[in-house]
Every structure is written in C-alpha cells, then in structure tokens.
Amino acid sequence: MYGMKTIPKTALNEWVQRLRRRFRVVGPKPKHGKFVFGEVETAAQMALDYPTTCVPPKKYLFPQQETLLNYHLDGSHIQAVIETEPTVIFGIHTCDVQATRLFDQIFSQGFTDQHYRARREDIYLISIECLSPCSEHAYCHDMGTSHLPEAADLHLTDLGDAYGVHVNTAKGESLIADAFVEEYSPAWQQIYETAIVDKQEVFRKRLNFAVEELNDLLREQYNSELWQEIGDKCLVCGMCTQVCPTCVCFNVVDEANLMQTEGQRTRHWDSCQATTFALVAGGHNFREARMSRQRHRFMRKGKYMHDAYGLLGCVGCGRCGETCLVNITPIEVLNALYQEQAVEQFVPESELELIHENVIAGSAGVAVDLHAGASQDNGRTHSH
Ligand code: SF4
Ligand code: SF4
Fold first, then answer.
1. Is 301 in the pocket of ligand 1 (CB under 6 A)?
2. For 252-297, how does the pLDDT look when each residue is reduced to its tens digit (9 = 90+)?
3. Sheet of strand 154-158, all strands in order from the earlier edge strand to the far edge
4. pLDDT exceeding 70 applies to what percent of the chain?
C-alpha cells in the first residue's frame, strides 16, 4: 500500500496535460447520448461521473482486430507484430478493472500471449469509485466488484472539491508524480468513509443468492428447460458478447496476397453466440442449437472460468442486459435458475413453467409461491 493523497478538482486538467507528455490518455467521453472510451486532450472532455460505456475499455488491451504476424509463404520470413503505446485509462470503473485481472490470468496461464503482455505492461489504470449504480442491469454489488479501491494503479473517489486517491502500485506513484497533490487529512478520510457508507444504501442486492453459490447452481441446473426457452428467444445477434468486458474468444485468420508470396495472420473478436462458432472440420457443429450456445455463455461466465482461473467470468457490469434486444439479462436468468432449483422438488410442473414464462417475458422480477419447504427473508430465498 503506497498511501492516500488528494487532488483538488481544479488541478485535474493540469494533471491530464502533464500525463499527455508521456502517455496517450483515454477516458469516458459522451457520444450520441451514450459514453465511449476515447483519447482525451483535456480533463473537460471526460465525463468522470458517466454511467457506463457501451464497449468496455478492454479494447486497449485486446483490440477488436490486430495483426499477429507477417510472413513469406516460402517460410523465409516470419515476424511477430507487437503494437503497443503507453496508455493511461482514466476513469475506468472497478468492474472493468476486475475484468482486466481476469484477462491477466487468461493471457498468462500456460501459454503467455506476448501481444497481450506487451500492451498490458504499457497500460496504466486510474479507476474511479462508482457512488451509485450505473444501470438497471448492473449487479456489480452482488459480484463483489463495486468497491475495489486497491485493484488499479490509482483509484479516485469523488469527495466534493477534490478526489481522494488510493496510490496502489509503483506505476500509480509514477502517475501521481505529475499531479498537484495534497496530503490526505483526517477530515478527507471522514468524507471518504461517509461516501462509502452512503453508497451501500443505493447499491441493492439483485441476486437472490450469494455469489459463492453460483458455480454449483450452474452445475446443478445444467439440464434446466430454461436454456431451451432462452435459446428460442435469442436472436443470435452476438451483441451480449461484443460488449462484455470478460469475453475473450477470438478467431485467427491467415490472409495471403494475390501472388501467394506474402501473408499476414490476424485475430479478431469472435462470439460463442455465432451459429458457426463451434463448426469444425467435417461439418459437425457441436453447439448448433441456440439453447446450447446460451447455456455455454452462462456456464462459461459463472462456472468454467471460475474452475479454470478462480475468478468469475462475469463482473456484473450489466452491459449484456442493457444491449440485448429481447431482454435476456443475467440477473433474471440466474435468479430464475436459483428459484427453479429451490422449488423443483416442491412445486408442480405448471409453476416451474411460470418461472420460465416470466423470464421469457423479460419481467423485472420472478414471483413464485415457494409453498412449504422454502422461506424468504430480506429478499433472499433459502430452501429448507
Ligand atoms: S456477462 Fe454481462 S454483466 Fe457479466 S461481465 Fe459480461 S456484459 Fe457484464
Ligand atoms: S444480445 Fe440477446 S439476442 Fe443477441 S445474442 Fe445475446 S442473448 Fe441473443
């Protein structure tokens, strides 16, 4: 722990100017009524109180498309292409920082992805505390990502006239060296603690179960009929995966010139929701049905990544729910699975169908009489 500082808001722009001498600075900017991460020249161009961005800042670590290597087809030349630029991601939300932690694991375990590693070393993260939920679909509070003051290199908290700054790493210290900082007095600490306590009042629990139960829940509900009903509803647009900060699937393509002398290998984001994603040689598609692709998406987020890396593959940002045209949202799907699990031994088939219908209708809540064998308290449901 490197300690706490404060930066007066009036000093923010000068800080950004100084950072720009050494780095590309990107931050949240308004665009067509939404927010996107883009390069900024002044602090005023950033909206640090933004709700969320359409596309997460993972694009700076894992671009939508990149060239991996150039080569001659006769094998005389193979050259890796590593494109990187020292970059400060300013104002990243803590859920997206948690997604970066997951990427660090994925791109390093077993085989180290040199393209990712090179960019990662050049990325400096300045996160900002969310003091209110960013969207109706966010459930970061349940996923444990709404308050991670020590995850990024620097972490800002809006304290009124100034930002409180957690300095967490040597990288963070090098960034703060460019800022006009003031000492972190007990008075600022009092304001900070009040802000964090107040925040707990506005971040409601959205899941009806503890996140520690998610892995087991998905395993036990693998054969749920809900997957079929969600699959029937899905339009296969793939937007849920394109906007997700933790989706990491990519395709690799070789493109040769017309003379068949030189080529380049590129990779680009792919989507497990695409019909051809699991199409393999011989024409077999091992996830041809939409239900199996939807099930895979949820399994991967809540179970497979957790099994492999010890971290959940969902950070609760809510972007997929926000963007889905047919209102397939993780909160409703997971709560329905939980409720289904809790009641399936006690209620008739017709009421299970009601749970599914509510999810299919995109209702905000799923109300089912649990009968004997289950009770509810403080919004949480427990089976006996
Ligand atoms: S699955 Fe949805 S809520 Fe979870 S991290 Fe991805 S976009 Fe965010
Ligand atoms: S955004 Fe919705 S409709 Fe589109 S692929 Fe994802 S779940 Fe299906």
1. yes
2. 999 999 999 999 999 999 999 999 999 999 999 999 999 999 999 9
3. 34-39, 24-31, 87-93, 123-128, 154-158, 162-167, 4-8, 182-183
4. 90
| Residues 243 and 284 placed together within one structural domain of the fold | yes
- Cα angle 175, 176, 178 (rounded to 5 degrees) comes to 80
DSSP bridge pairs for 24: 87
Domain containing residue 188: 4-62+82-202
250 and 109 fall within a common domain = no
Distance CA 234, CA 231 (A): 5
Distance 241 CA to ligand 2 centre (A): 8
Overall number of domains in the chain: 2
* Residue 266, beta-bridge partner list: 67, 253
Q: What is the pLDDT of residues 300-356, one digit of tens each?
A: 999 999 999 999 999 999 999 999 999 999 999 999 999 999 877 666 666 667 766
Does one domain contain both 257 and 189? Answer: no
319 Cβ below 6 A of ligand 1 = yes
Which of 272, 320, 322 to probe ligand 1 with, by most ligand atoms within 8 A of CB? 320
Closest CA to 315 of 140, 148, 152: 140
* Residue 89, SS3 per DSSP: strand
| Distances from the Cα of 160 to the Cα of 49, 93, 187, 194, angstroms | 12, 19, 12, 12
Residues 126 and 226 in one domain: no
Tokens 């006996």 belong to 384
Q: Which residues line ligand 2 (CB under 6 A)?
A: 234-240, 273, 323-326, 328
